Each structure stands twice: as structure tokens, then as C-alpha cells.
Amino acid sequence: MTMKPEKFFATCPRGLEALLADELRVQGAENLAPTYGGVAFSGKFELCYRVNLHSRLASRVLWRIGGGEYDNEEDIYQGSLSLDWPSLFSVERSIVVKMTAQKSPLKSLEFATLRIKDAVCDRFRDACNARPDVDIREPEIRIHAFLTATVCTLYLDTSGASLFKRGLRVQAGAAPINENLAAGLIKLSGWRPGVPLFDPMCGSGTILMEAAQIALNIAPGSGRHFGFENLARFDGNVWTPIKEAAAAAQLPATAQPIFGRDMFGSSLADARVNLEAAGLDQVIELKQGNVLEVPAPADHGVIVTNPPYGVRIGEQAELLEFYPKLGDWLKRKCAGWNAYILSADMELPKRIRLSATRRTPLFNGALECRLFEYKIVAGSARK
């Protein structure tokens, strides 16, 4: 008897949906449907093991368990009550319910969330005369509800903590980007292992660490646990060989042409702590230096960086002076390099005074950004 494929939805930073679909396809996902903020897909249940372990771009992998039309909160309660929750996880597991909505007519999403929690607890009480505890901080089971104007869809989170939490970074630094967005910037740059990669404003080293993991074929989820391990459906006999195969494919931690610079010693100290904790301190070259003064570490390569753009460190007046100097540095010292610069400010990059060959819309959390591509050649045209 052929098992019916399970339905999943993987969330990701907005702007990375097409790249995530490619990643999911490599893991064997079928019926891929990219949409705003993620990708729907289907496959055997064990597919969620591989996606959680190997995806560099996903934020969460949600397993669709039910849903239906609704008019009010009572409809949502009854629909939730109809699901066989005790077959999905043990009453001893702690839970939390999260809800997102688009164009829902309900006046209170908080009350609708409470009704789903009530339905889950009531179903357990009827089945085993006990109810699961609620833990909003570190729940073992995360239940997600998504409301459209007429339909409520229920999911179980197979990831647990967000997938950008690789379990590697110890010090976050002043204003980091999440690891999956950093991985997305690297993929959008077209960088490949063996080609020099340079972050001249590396901060706590997030972009560098993602590049090192790609170069060494380290599965991004290899240092953490996942939500699917708390589900009744979890099969350790299937999970263990998947995890062991990923570990066997990992390359030795040898030096790579990946270079980081930062003018702030405190940021570099954070980066070094992170690299040492991840066992990558011998893989990446870190040095202190002002981006406007340091030479490029090779005669060609890819620059990927997330400079200050007014939302985090730095005053606006200082940035208005900094960006033209950044353009001068690129022209004088980075001929032969392709530069990829993330910014949430659409005006500051214009002050670089180089023609961007591509502008990719992305979101850093709620901040709308662009990834600007500059191909630097000797005598690059100035705007």
C-alpha cells in the first residue's frame, strides 16, 4: 500500500523563495509551490528530517495536519477538536499555539488562538483524562494556525527553534543578520567554494561562518535538535542514518580562501569566539582593519557584506560621508571582484557612485532591503 504524501510548508526570509524551492527539490520534495514568505511542498514524512537538517535558507518546516472553512471562533474550535491530537504527540509534551492571518474577519486573533489551545487540551482530556502543559518559552510542541479570510489551516512545527539558530553562534554582536539570510546572500552572489570570499565589515562573522559551512559541506542543522524528535511519528531508525550520512560527507576543517575584516576589535572578538566554538577558527582568516584602508585579500573574488545603513550602528550624517568613500575603495582596491552589498536604505547605495548591475529585493526581518551587485573592473564607470 502506497502511503499518501504528507504536505509541508517551509518558511524563509522574503525574497529567497525561489532559491528555497531549488534547495527543497534537491532533497526530493515534490509539488513545489513558492509563495509569499515560503514554499509549499509534499513528500514522505522523513523528508522533513532531511530538509530540517540540510536547508540553509528555511526558517521553519511546518507539517500540515488539518484545516477547513470557518466563520467564527467556534468553527475554529470545532475544527481543531476534530483532530486526533493524542495520536500526534504525547500528553506529557508541553505545547504552544501560534497564529498568523491574512484578511481574517475575526476581531481577536488572540481569542482564536486560545480556542485552538482549548480544543487540543479538551481532546486530550477526553482521551486520557489529562492535558498537556502550555510553555510559551521553550515548548516541545509548536502548533501553528494560519487563517485566510475563510480557511483555517493547522500545522505542527517539525523544526522547533527557528532553523537559522544553527547552534553554532555564541556571540551575536551589535546588529547581526540571521544565518539563513546570510546564506541567501551568498547563494545570490553565485559564490562557489574555492573562490575567494571577502566580508570587509564582518561584525560577529555570520556571513563568514555560512560560507565556511558551505565550503566544508557541513549540514547547517548538524549541531542542534529538532521539533520532529518530539512527535509520535518520529522514527529514530530512519533519522539516525540520515544524520550519520551528513556527518560522513563533511570535509576536514582546513583553511579556505574566506576572509573577514572589521575595524572594531570587539566585533572581531565576537567573531573569533563564534569560529572557535564552531571549530572553524582555522578555516577563515580574520584581521582587524578599516574597510576604507584594507587591501583586497586576493586579485579576484566575491565580496558579500552587510554594512551599516542607518537602522543599526552609525549616524546618518556619517553614513552619507562613508558610502562615497566605500565606492572609492571598491574602485581603487577591488578591481576583479564582484561586490554584493545589502542595504535597507535605498538612497545610501546611490552614493557609492558605481552602477549596480542587479538589485535583488529581500527582507531582513521586517526591513525591506535590496542586495546591490557591483562588478568592479579597472576604471569602473562612475555615476
Strand line-up of the largest beta sheet: 2-3-1-4-7-6-5
Name the CATH homologous superfamily of the largest domain. Vaccinia Virus protein VP39
* CATH topological fold name of the largest domain: Rossmann fold
Report the sheet with the most strands, covering strand number, pairing sense and barrel closure.
Answer: 7 strands, mixed
Percent of residues in helices: 25-40%
Specify the CATH architecture of the largest domain. Answer: 3-Layer(aba) Sandwich
Which geometry do the CA atoms define?
elongated
Strand content: 15-25%
> What's the total count of β strands?
14
Briefly, what CATH class of the largest domain?
A: Alpha Beta
Describe this structure as you would to a colleague.
The chain is 30% helix and 23% strand. The chain is an alpha/beta fold and 383 residues long. A hairpin with a 3-residue loop joins strand 6 and strand 7 (151-157). It is elongated, with a radius of gyration of 23 Å. The model has no long low-confidence stretch (mean pLDDT 94).
Short description:
By secondary structure, the protein is an alpha/beta fold. It has nine helices and 14 strands. Helix 3 (73-81) packs parallel to helix 4 (109-128) and helix 5 crosses helix 6.
Q: What is the element layout, followed by pairings?
A:
Layout: E1 6-11, H1 17-26, E2 30-35, E3 38-43, H2 47-54, E4 60-69, H3 73-81, E5 95-101, H4 109-128, E6 141-147, E7 151-157, H5 179-189, E8 197-199, H6 206-215, H7 236-249, E9 258-262, H8 265-278, E10 285-288, E11 301-305, H9 316-333, E12 337-343, E13 358-364, E14 367-375
Parallel strand pairs: 5-6, 8-9, 8-11, 9-10, 11-12
Antiparallel strand pairs: 1-3, 1-4, 2-3, 4-7, 6-7, 12-14, 13-14
